[in-house]
Amino acid sequence: RLFAPSAGLRLFAPSAGLRLRGSARPLATAAPSMSMVDAALPTLEDLTDPREWLEEVEGDKQIGWVKEQNADAVARIGEPSDKPLYGRLLEIMESDEKIPYIGRVLNGLYYNFWQDETHVQGIWRRCTLDEYRKAEPEWELVLDLDALSAESGVSWVWGGSTLLDEGPGVRKDRVMVSLSRGGADAKVSREFDLDAKEFVAVMDGGFELPEAKSQLSYKDRDTLLVGGVFGEGEMTDSGYPRSVWEWRRGTPLAEATKVYEGEQSDVSVGGFAYLDRGRRYELRYRSLTFYTSSYELKVGEAAWAPIPIPADANVGTFADQLLVTLRSAWLGHPAGALLAAPAERLMVAGDDAARSALLTPLFTPTETCSLEASTETKNYLVLSCLDNVVTECRFWRYADGAFSLERCLKGEVGLSPSFSAVDAETSDDLWRTSDGY
């Protein structure tokens, strides 16, 4: 798993946000320039934001201000809808010929979130693979945000879903669905029954988190790991969660137990539990700055332990391996490299010499080649590299405790192939997409 946390291959970059399993994801970020870390620059405490009041996105005063700015812009450049390009772009955006990308495969059904001129807020829907292959699939409606918005009088915007994953062979029947009012940063998260296709009421034991800049993860069927919903005292100076709490099903949120916390000065703090190819991990982190973090990992029933990597590196897992992406040179490997090592052995290695002996480079940058993204299947890590502005996909197979490079697929200038897993938990099937001009 490359964090931003998801199941399968995971890379953890807390400041980069969350991405779902099966999606291509960035791996490397350019190191900050000296100007970015100049000690003479103002700190967060020194800065003020004169537009902070606009964060109340549905307030009458705020909406009035936006209308004034829109009117001023129209007066200066004209009404956009009067231009031919506007109509062309709107037709493209609302076209039924858009690719209905699959976000999840659960219990043999392929899930897609879809918006068009009829479903403005969007619908969450699903179908079988045989149906998906048809020119006009017959979709089964799971959740209609337009209907929900009309019923509640709130313009709900899709914020994604968090799956209860109890391992291979166990039916996937619960997710936490996150929705925001008008696209605000704060979200409401409610438990959803995939079989009944409805939210689970609190009186029936369903989890429901109040509107907040929250983080959440299932630890097990009856426990959520949550943060960001316990008041300003449990938020960082940057406005993100500062602590992780365990909340048991059927109990008031106020009775949740704090299990981890960072400092007020941290950017954010979080914790996640997940299964990765049959192995159970729990990970928690402190984003110390935008570019640096500290991580602790719990493998199975072992005790929590810090992950011994540089503070500016990103970390993840693939089966029993730790994956480390470097932002600065470490143990003879350059910035931008991707390294693999046995997780449990690296965690207990006594010194740099012992750690170095465990590292296997999966990608090493050159003057012309950088690592752009990755995806994963059950047995493969697929790296998307950019070499002289040409995309090359490298397929690393993991078997018998080791990675081996099996094949490479190179694109051409102006046409880039990319891959994403169909269902990384169960197969090596891939979606292939080609983008070009």
Describe this structure in words.
With 437 residues, the protein is mainly β. 12% of the residues lie in helices and 38% in strands. The protein contains six helices and 28 strands. It has helices at residues 60-77, 84-93, 129-132, 145-152, 343-348, 352-358, and strands spanning 25-26, 104-106, 109-114, 123-127, 140-144, 156-163, 174-181, 187-193, 198-199, 208-212, 215-220, 223-227, 243-248, 257-261, 268-276, 279-287, 293-299, 305-306, 314-318, 321-325, 338-342, 360-363, 369-376, 380-387, 390-399, 402-410, 415-421, 430-436. It has a five-stranded antiparallel sheet with strand order 1-23-24-25-26, with no helix packed on it. Strands 6, 7, 8, 9 and 10 form a five-stranded antiparallel sheet that branches. A hairpin with a 5-residue loop joins strand 16 and strand 17 (293-299). The protein is globular and about 65 Å long. The two termini are 32 Å apart. Residues 4-39 have low confidence and may be disordered.
